[in-house]
Amino acid sequence: MNSAPSDPAADPMPPVRDSPGRLFLRFLRFGCLAWGGPVAQLDMVRQELVERERWVTPEHFRRLLGIYQALPGPEAHEMCVHLGMVARGRWGGVLAGLGFMLPGFGLMLAAAWWYARTDLAAAGALAVFLGLQPVVVALVARAAWRLGRHSLADPRLGAVALAVAGLQVLQVPFWLSLPLAGAAWVAWGERRRYAGSLLGAGALAAAIFASPVLREGRPWWPEREVRFAGAGGAAAGTAATPAAAFAAGLRTGCLTFGGAYTAIPFLQEDAVDRGGWLRRAQFLDGVAIAGVLPAPLIIFATFVGYLAGGWAGALAITAGVFLPAFAFSLLFYRRIEAALAHGRLRPFLDGVTAGVVGVIAITAAELAWVALTEPKAVGLAAAAAVILWRASGRAVIPLTVIGGGLAGALLY
What we know:
single chain, mainly alpha, 17 helices, globular, 412 residues
């Protein structure tokens, strides 16, 4: 058996006896049952590997989760990779990560293949997707609220979120606005007024220089779309090359602070706003399909990649999205853990996370503007919001999405 990577902070535990094949099948089973979002996925893993088999102590599991929640990427997948490392070293991490993601990846690839070849109107499915889209709006709004509730405890972080939301409306690129948010919060926390003033001036200059709204006079808000009534996956415009799809996935994977829902605005910018690979309605359909699959929600990237660039696009964008989640666990965990433990990264990550809240809030508003074009859609979104805010349990999200599809079939 390969030796697991040493972790001096971990409590001594009995050796894990899983063979490579058994380890892969164990996490493949987790992937097949991964409904209900990261909370339900992590609870399933915790019950088996921590409470019953004691791969790590409960305290160590909580500390690991706190670290991965502070880092970009789907935390449930990252935790699976790390626990695979506990069992079989780095190859164990690879096997565990692949096992956990493959069921959702295969199902989403099949769904994208069907969607791209189906005349939704002729198949009677267009009404279902019209019912799914308001539910997606409610899901994104709920994600913004939940992330904001935990991340904006300090009112000044709320100001950071509002500032980044303003930059988002001006279409300032994420790679500029989010690091500025992190640096501003570091300067603010250390009371470096001079540095804070310089950052403020720099942010204003960056907004003017980098904003296509200010420089080129582009519309600052998306136009409402007429829902395409033909083939679900008809090309929206430019096809994505595998390299472009991989780059879009990698950018998304590196910026998803606070959960998989934060991937939505980043991938939407590449695939819809800048790349023109998909229409916004198609993008919403992909998120809706991901909500009913046993997988991290970020698997909707596979749908985007398939519609944008076929099989090669799907593989490339999925590899890009999940590469950071593998890399943080396999290569950089101990260094990042040490930096977080000494407080060097936390203020910067807090500022970035606050900025992400602003980005998601604007994205939710944009999606609502596109999807909620009539009273029936508004009513569906409101009903979904009530259910999502008041109910709990691993089945709530997939059942709400399915219910939205059924309601759409009845209403439309």
